[in-house]
Amino acid sequence: MKNVKPGHDVPVVCLDAGHAGKYNRSPVVPEYYESDMNWKLHLLLKAELEKRGIKVITTRPDQATDLALEKRGKLAQDADLFESLHSNAAEQESTDYVVAMYQVDDHCGEMDKQSLEIASRLSSCVAEIMGVKARVWASQSDHDRDGNGYKDDYYGVLRGAHSVHTPGVIVEHGFHTNPEQARWLLDEGNLQKLAEAEAEAICQYFDWQQEEPEHWYRIRESWDKPETQVGAYKDPEAAKAACPEGYSVYNWEGDVVYTNTPAPAATNYTLTLPMLQKGDKGRLVKALQQLLLANDIKLPRYGADGDFGDETKVGVISYQKKVGLSADGVAGPATMGSLLGLR
Q1: How far apart are CA 16 and CA 38, in angstroms?
Q2: What distance in Å separates the CA atoms of residue 273 and residue 331, rounded to the nearest whole number?
Q3: Do β-strands 168-175 and 217-220 pair in parallel, antiparallel, or remain unpaired?
Q4: Which of 23, 125, 180, 186 has the smallest count of CB within 10 Å of its CB?
């Protein structure tokens, strides 16, 4: 890691969405406002930098809040880099390059060289995404405001960043006076591409690569009971295989990915079969008669009428002979079990 201030374990970037409210409306694409684009892009860039483990501070709590130029730059006091996001304007609609302004060299240390380095990186990556040429420059004012013998930056935000010893850069993302570029910048998909490219350029500037966290799958009774943990595995399938009954496998964020639920205890049931004989009536007799008919025993006269008469008794005897049971004409448990396919 390089280009960071002493005491910083991770790089810190201060992002400035240039201009507040509704400002700098495009004269050629009326729905475009520079301030809208700056605000959207700085939020996207913030998200991309934070995704990469870089700490981000911003100069505005919301788009409407306006702050003085130098004050915005001075908010980068605890940052390692200050970037102010803009789009440019020109008299000619055809003007179409990307420019990054870096701090003027006052021979007071590495800060101005760092400013030039990040300006070069950002202008190149933005120009590549937008398909135009890249430029970098510094603009010097006609005053020596801090009395160090050198004229200061023309741009107020860069003077502010310089005063708190933070390398600063202004990035002009094309020209909103160019119809094609203004329409291109209205597309949030294009802004996302810019955010990703600038985040990568900033990571390269810091020589920063976030270490990938190790992802473990933990076996516990409950996520909020770490004392119950019985194992941790990088392979989720191994964790599932080792998970005892009543425990769950949790991912690194505490979400359950598997629970080993105990199998329900086996339940034993006792089936009591009726004994039916001649003279019985009712639904059980009717069920018997239906079972006889289903087993090809004829009950031609009365069928399944629920009355155990002579015809049903003959039918039972016929079935008993057919399956090798004692042919007594009584439908006891053995006969009923056979009819039900239980024996």
Answers
A1: 8
A2: 10
A3: unpaired
A4: 23
